[in-house]
């Protein structure tokens, strides 16, 4: 397992420490703290009925943000349903992320310059698409990568194997992330596969695979940076398995992790917390303080408050909006139904 | 008789058949330890062991293929597809393989499989979780497509499905899982597949529906009765193959029909019902057969769900049109 920072926030692998400025190192921490606050607030908003679908992210910040931090703006992101934070840091406004949660189509409309599709709901579908985006980039002569994410369960899907195999066959510049958070809803990874690691699945596709400490933001960043450089230099795709943990339920729709997880396991993983260890590291370099952290927390809370307000004020999605988005030109059936539903909506 | 929700009736049916026949196997994503995301398989693994009730890796296509193989070994697989919107992932196994097993082997092999899946809207699920895709599977010859609307029917139909030697797609409307209770006998019983049920007798107009829309029809019928219109409500229960006899008999009696489905309008089950009626009973009709459906868009998850889903008012409105034709 590739690691740079251990659980105590000490460097264990000097030669792979990424070349980041103090400001960049702090920015990584800011993003993780912000995202943890966003997760806590999203859970609360969901419980109040003010959000729709929500998949908690706490525990996975290093995997999600360490990898995203290594990307360029022109790289193309194909996230899974839990990967909203990467989209936000890649430029999706927060209020749109909230609209996505509510099933509003404006939440899926990426602003100009954000090269991404909205989070995939079907497990693994983004893997095959990533191979296509990456091949397209190669054909266009771009020096960019397609980056996609799924969980440990996703590696059982046919789409997973097809995606890594296609990308390998075409030497397409793709980075395939498996965020191994130990459970596919309730099924532990040991019951998901007989493979010792998920990274080793790369071998069958003839591509590079690496297992990374997914609670170590510097390791995830370094591995992604490396994969990115390889890919744009024509050396083909890479599969990165990050060992991580979701502290919360699978989603906020009634999943109860106490049915399938023990408190001991939760405690064991909380000791590896990505924020705690990275904070220790930054403090040892005099780059972080409680005051700084509180500032980020306050800023996050304020921005979240504003964003939810903005989402509330955005015009509610109508059935006629859906009709308008089905085809480039409305066919006869939808033309007729448009009139009918305009009337229904005006009531 | 016990009072049960539909989900309890389903668990009861699974338990009954796991007890009755050691060849019955229940499997799928999260059905074991977790008891299913809706708890339909709650307690079954503890009762029957991991050999009979087990979690699978996360792969719908794999679940379908596994079921076919186990069926070839003489088992009666009852796989769960976690949400029917994930059916596209397993479409080849269902339509391309299990539906054709009997035909391809000239009757030597069959697929005694019951694929269970929750579907249907109104419970604020995310994208691809609520879609009504029964039309997709109903178009495939070789499959039976069963959709219960009450706890009583759910138990009897599920037991019959598991005992059937042909593949059955058994669809459970999420909104009906816990929305009401009904009387369900504790002992085992079956309801014949392919038989519709007249849920309410009437003389003026026939409402044909299945799943959650049966309840919308019954509500509409109550409202219509206040205005002196006596509606008959037919619950198809099996949408493929259709119970033509019950449908035509009712058309001959009422001469007016409205077909109701939660699914989008284009193609689908309601369109087929209308086609069968006009081919077989056109001279008994006093008005065109009308449909109440969702519009032809993807499912409007979350925000616009309530407007998108057909309701009893839409049904009353359509009935008034056929009455005044």
UniProtKB/TrEMBL annotation, chain B:
**What is a GO molecular function of this protein?**
oxidoreductase activity
User: Which residues are in the Transketolase-like pyrimidine-binding domain?
Assistant: 4-179
Instruction: Say yes or no: keyword Cell cycle present.
Output: no
| The keyword Membrane belongs to this UniProt entry's keyword annotation | no
Record key words, sorted: Oxidoreductase, Thiamine pyrophosphate
Name any cofactors this protein relies on.
thiamine diphosphate
Superkingdom to which the source organism belongs: Bacteria
Q: Record's InterPro entries?
A: THDP-binding, Transketo_C/PFOR_II, Transketolase-like_Pyr-bd, Transketolase_C
SUPFAM superfamilies with a match to the protein in the record: Thiamin diphosphate-binding fold (THDP-binding), TK C-terminal domain-like
> Which Pfam families does the record cross-reference, listed alphabetically?
Transket_pyr, Transketolase_C
Name it. Answer: 2-oxoisovalerate dehydrogenase
| Organism listed in the record | Virgibacillus pantothenticus
